[in-house]
Amino acid sequence: xxxxxxxxxxxxxxxxxxxxxxxxxxxxxxxxxxxxxxxxxxxxxxxxxxxxxxxxxxxxxxxxxxxxxxxxxxxxxxxxxxxxxxxxxxxxxxxxxxxxxxxxxxxxxxxxxxxxxxxxxxxxxxxxxxxxxxxxxxxxxxxxxxxxxxxxxxxxxxxxxxxxxxxxxxxxxxxxx
Length: 177
Description:
elongated; 3 helices; disordered C terminus; alpha+beta
């Protein structure tokens, strides 16, 4: 998640990563013991424990949002839990803004209060912003500059938010610009 959203360029070592295979060739080695480097492998990337679906989703998000394809406008945001990291990226023309919050603890649910002003998304200080989580398709209505976030790694270790200026009522998530 961090590599795919923090860097404009990233790569994944194919099926071994998707299937979370990590037995080293020898103690301390970064090479895998059973990699296709040493033998022909048939990978079952459709296994239930495969990361293929989430990697496909993240790649689609990267391709659809120019903010994730640049390193120029990266800003880290204050959050009151050291197990969470929050940052936003903005495209060169300012049209694409993405806010990412990642749980750095792979075993426990983490929560915290994030400092993120709506003005980053081009909204006025008195306007609400709809935060569309591109990973889960959930939508949240944020107003003000301090926001509660909670992430459970067994469900999804991150939010990738696309902020949208909100012009509807607080009960109507269908109206935004």
